[in-house]
């Protein structure tokens, strides 16, 4: 069934809860549950990113193709209803035979449920299953909702902000990082139809947008990661305001931090950090992203841009063999410490960055989380690339509506 617009033209989204597999860099294939849009048969991780406008009436139909009841929760959205033949009824916890079976209205196996809410406030939000959440959410039933502030026009960069004009949330490029962790033993138990025992939860993989490093740095919709469509490589030019949205979708807290500069936290859980005219935003080295939390931050690389002739770096530059050079194929190095310059690279190093850009890590500061089942490097790690001015196209760092999940109301 194609995605249909509702009568008022607001977004109608169809998600299906299905199973599938993801791939990790160490060659593992992990069984997951996840949300999917109309186009594919298997689950994706995370679910499709839903982007709507402030004031939209958002209608989401959930079709359940899993063997147990499944639902959707929308933390931070006010007034969520279920549409029935006789009208809209508020959703709420579901008890059967005196037992809580779901935190919200659900779809039975092979059944559907339709939710509706008004996206009244701009910001970054999570959606996830509200049923058996200590099993279904870590299995992969989660995704992101972004509500654009009133007046946002994707074609007019002057209108780009997370929370509206004059909120200190204006940005030039934006990135979304949904973080979580996976215990592959429990996932395998579910695949085999065995019980999922949360008490034995022991994650071995840590993911950003469903991928483990170094896959995190691969492009969006890389064909060899068909169920993990979203990359998390951050790219910007000096001085640009980069909006980085974090969402904690796991069971554990993840201390995330970028190198190069601190981030300024401008909003928490979809709420602007401002009290009247008082700006409550604050700079952080590390942001501890807890389960279900969202953080909006502005990252701005404001390091000095040295030039080898007019403003040389004021300290001796180490000779080549004393510079930090990684294994062959791993070095993001141009052969020169000057932004935009390129020089020699050591014998045996095969990688050379393209424009003489700088790279900084962005990673979990809990070091076991930057491994893939014990192997470093991996896990919850990506890079921030600072590119020479004028070298990044306008398409870099644009969060597009996922046209397959949001086909009805693309603004043109
Ligand atoms: Cu670090």
TrEMBL record:
<feature type="domain" description="Plastocyanin-like">
    <location>
        <begin position="43"/>
        <end position="149"/>
    </location>
</feature>
<dbReference type="InterPro" id="IPR008972">
    <property type="entry name" value="Cupredoxin"/>
</dbReference>
<dbReference type="GO" id="GO:0005507">
    <property type="term" value="F:copper ion binding"/>
</dbReference>
<keyword id="KW-0479">Metal-binding</keyword>
<keyword id="KW-0560">Oxidoreductase</keyword>
<dbReference type="Pfam" id="PF07732">
    <property type="entry name" value="Cu-oxidase_3"/>
</dbReference>
<protein>
    <submittedName>
        <fullName>Copper resistance protein A</fullName>
    </submittedName>
</protein>
<dbReference type="InterPro" id="IPR011707">
    <property type="entry name" value="Cu-oxidase-like_N"/>
</dbReference>
<dbReference type="InterPro" id="IPR045087">
    <property type="entry name" value="Cu-oxidase_fam"/>
</dbReference>
<keyword id="KW-0186">Copper</keyword>
<dbReference type="GO" id="GO:0016491">
    <property type="term" value="F:oxidoreductase activity"/>
</dbReference>
């Amino acid at each position: 069934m194609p995605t249909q617009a509702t009568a008022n033209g607001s977004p109608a989204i169809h998600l299906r809860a299905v199973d599938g597999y993801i791939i990790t860099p160490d060659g593992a294939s992990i069984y997951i549950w996840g949300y999917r849009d109309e186009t594919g048969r298997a689950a994706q991780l995370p679910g499709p990113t839903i982007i709507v406008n402030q004031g939209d009436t958002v209608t989401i139909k959930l079709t359940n193709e899993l063997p147990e009841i499944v639902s959707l929760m929308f933390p931070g959205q006010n007034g969520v209803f279920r549409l029935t033949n006789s009208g809209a009824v508020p959703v709420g916890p579901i008890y059967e035979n005196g037992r809580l079976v779901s935190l919200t209205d659900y779809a039975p196996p092979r059944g559907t449920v339709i939710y509706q809410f008004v996206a009244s406030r701009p910001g970054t939000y999570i959606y996830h299953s509200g049923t058996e959440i200590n099993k279904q959410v870590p299995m992969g039933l989660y995704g992101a909702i972004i509500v654009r502030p009133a007046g946002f026009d994707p074609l007019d960069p002057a209108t780009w902000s997370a929370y509206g004009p004059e909120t200190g949330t204006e940005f030039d490029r934006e990135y979304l990082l949904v973080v979580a962790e996976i215990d592959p033993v429990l996932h395998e138990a579910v695949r085999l139809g065995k019980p999922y025992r949360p008490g034995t939860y022991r994650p071995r993989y840590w993911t950003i947008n469903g991928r483990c490093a170094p896959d995190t740095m691969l492009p969006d919709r890389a064909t060899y990661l068909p169920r993990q469509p979203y990359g998390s490589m951050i790219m910007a030019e000096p001085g640009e305001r980069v909006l980085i949205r974090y969402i904690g979708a796991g069971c554990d807290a993840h201390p995330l931090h970028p190198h190069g500069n601190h981030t300024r936290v401008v909003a928490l859980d979809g709420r602007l950090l401002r009290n009247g005219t008082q700006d409550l935003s604050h700079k952080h080295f590390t942001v501890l992203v807890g389960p279900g939390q969202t953080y909006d931050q502005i990252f701005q690389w404001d390091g000095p841009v040295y030039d080898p002739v007019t403003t040389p770096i004021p300290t001796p530059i180490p000779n080549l063999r004393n510079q930090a050079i990684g294994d062959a194929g791993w070095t993001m190095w141009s052969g020169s410490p000057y932004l935009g310059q390129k020089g020699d690279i050591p014998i045996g190093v095969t990688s050379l960055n393209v424009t003489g850009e700088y790279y900084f890590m962005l990673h979990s500061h809990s070091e076991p989380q930057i491994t893939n089942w014990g192997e470093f490097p991996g896990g919850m790690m990506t890079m921030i690339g600072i590119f020479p001015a004028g070298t990044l196209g306008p398409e870099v760092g644009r969060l597009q509506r996922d046209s397959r999940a949001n086909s009805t109301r693309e603004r043109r």
